[in-house]
Amino acid sequence: MFQNAAEFPFVAQLESHWQDILQELERIDAGSFLAWPEKYLYEQGWDIFGLYAFGLKIEKNCHKCPTTTRLVEAIPGMVTAGFSSLQPGTHIAAHTGYPDGVLRCHLGLTGCAGCTLRVGDETRTWIEGKCLVFDDTTEHEVWHRGSATRVVLLLDFKLPQGEGRAPGFWQRLWRRER
What is the CATH number of the domain that holds 33? Predict the structure, then answer.
């Protein structure tokens, strides 16, 4: 289910600095992005540029994005952070995340028009400069029917009672980048 993003104090910081984050994104070479590894969820067009993987800093990537890194490091309980890129025509199949007290936040950066996210029974569209927060243990799905590449800053953060996300993609990404 979607959460009220305003309930999380870090959201205001991200939204007020979204253009700084966008400027850093624009300096990243497209070849630095890696395909999202869970290929069973999509056919093509979903890539990621990780900053933090399962709580571990990807130094090389964070060095390219100092402002973004500073902002995500200030988020209490942050365990993952990176840029998630979707090409037009991409569909991410319905799926659920890991049930461990972690919420997901997306800060819309580019190409949000025509790109929708369904969480449970509710569908929303990203807005550039605005955050969506949701529980990814609720079934969710994405359609990119727009004409421009959609990029969001993707964050996972623990709720105060959370235990942390199980090792998975972010941990594998961190190992690959080291």
Answer: 2.60.120.330
Q: Give the torsion through C-alpha atoms of 30, 86, 39, 95, to 10 deg.
A: 150
Give Cα 131 to chain centroid, integer Å.
10
Contact call for residues 119 and 1 (beta carbons, < 8 A): yes
Task: Count structural domains, the chain.
Answer: 1
Say what the pTM is: 0.88
Question: What is the span of the domain harbouring residue 139?
Answer: 2-177
Walk along the chain (178 residues) and give the pLDDT tens digit of each residue. Answer: 899 999 999 999 999 999 999 999 999 998 999 998 888 899 899 999 999 988 899 999 999 999 999 999 999 999 999 999 999 999 999 999 876 688 999 999 999 999 999 999 999 999 999 999 999 889 999 999 999 999 999 999 998 663 343 434 433 433 444 3
